[in-house]
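Q: Sequence in, structure out?
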Amino acid sequence: MLRSQDVVVVLQLRAVASEAGQAWTYAGLAGATGLSASQAHASVERLKAAGLVRSDADEPLWVPAKALGTLLQHAVPLWLYPETQGPPGAVRGIPTAWSGPPLSSVMQSDRVVVWPHPQGESLGESVAPLHACVLKGACVPGHRDYNARLHEVLALVDALRLGRARDRREA
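A: Exactly. Output:
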C-alpha cells in the first residue's frame, strides 16, 4: 500500500527524469526529499509495485505520465485529504497551494495557506504537508537542502488537495 511519502518521491523522480541526462541514487533521492536512503528505497519499491515507476532492462527508472496524472487528479485529493488547523493568518509558515510558487503569480486569493514552520515568511491558515519530510529542509527556503522545483510541485499538489474546481484547473 502506498504512503504519503511515496507521492513526494514519485514527484521528485519525475522532476529528475525531466532534466535530461541527470542520474540519481537512493542517497541523492533521500537528500532531495528529506527521507533516509532506506525510506527512499522502500518508497521506490512500493511505487514499482503500484505501476507508478517502471524500469526497462537497460533504462533507468521512469514515471509514466498518465499514471502520475491519474494519481494526482483523482487519488491524492481523496486519499490525502488535507488537515487545516487554526484560524486564517494565525500560523507562521511556508506558503503552499495558491499562496506559494508558482500559482501565487497567476492567482489572487485573500486566503493564505502555509505549511507550519518557524522559519516561514508568511502568516496564514495551517495545512499539514503531504509528509513531514517536506519540512526537513527540502522545501524550506534558505535551507542548504532547499529544492525549489520540489517545493513548486508540492504546492501544486496542495492546490489539488485544497482547492475548488478553478484552483484544480490552474494546478
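Strands lie at 84-85, 91-95, 113-116, 122-127.
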